Amino acid sequence: MINLIIAIVIGVLILIMAIIAVHHKNIVVGIIAAGVVSLFASILYLLLAAPDVAMTEAAIGSGLSTIIFFYVLNKIKRQNG
User: Fold this and answer.
1) CA distance linking residue 29 with residue 43, whole number of Å
2) 3-state secondary structure of 45
3) pLDDT at position 81 over 80
4) How many angstroms separate the CA atoms of 73 and 66, rounded?
5) Rg of the chain over CA atoms, in angstroms?
6) Span 11-23, average pLDDT
7) 52-63 confidence digits (pLDDT tens)
8) How would DSSP label each residue in 51-77?
9) Among 42, 39, 1, 50, CA closest to 17
10) For residue 60, how many other CB atoms are within 10 A of its CB?
11) How far, in Å, CA of 24 to CA of 61, rounded?
12) CA-CA distance, 5 to 73, in Å (whole number)?
């Protein structure tokens, strides 16, 4: 029962952060919010007894993707700036 409540709370947090990622004016906030969505998804996978998927999502979805987004943003700012 407690896992269901935690899963619902994490699902709501994922939706809120996804809305922030899409609608926020600041691109840095959007990138961080997208990374947090992926991090919450990895926690949800862990609760659903899929630790291998959770580790992959945390490493690639949250970590690597966020780093790549910031790298590309830095390259774009250098070219325009």
Assistant:
1) 21
2) helix
3) no
4) 11
5) 15
6) 96
7) 999 999 999 889
8) HHHHHHIIIIIIIIHHHHHHHHHHHHH
9) 39
10) 13
11) 20
12) 37
Burial class (CB in 10 A: 0-12, 13-18, 19+), 9: exposed
Global pTM? Answer: 0.87
Task: Band the pLDDT of 71: cuts 50, 70, 90.
Answer: very high
Domain ranges of the chain: 2-80
Distance CA 67, CA 33 (A): 13
The residue to which tokens 């996804």 are assigned: 18
For the chain, the first-to-last Cα distance in angstroms comes to 53
Residue with tokens 């919450």: 40
Helix, strand or coil, per DSSP, at residue 25: coil
Q: 8, 76, 28: which is closest to 36 by C-alpha?
A: 28
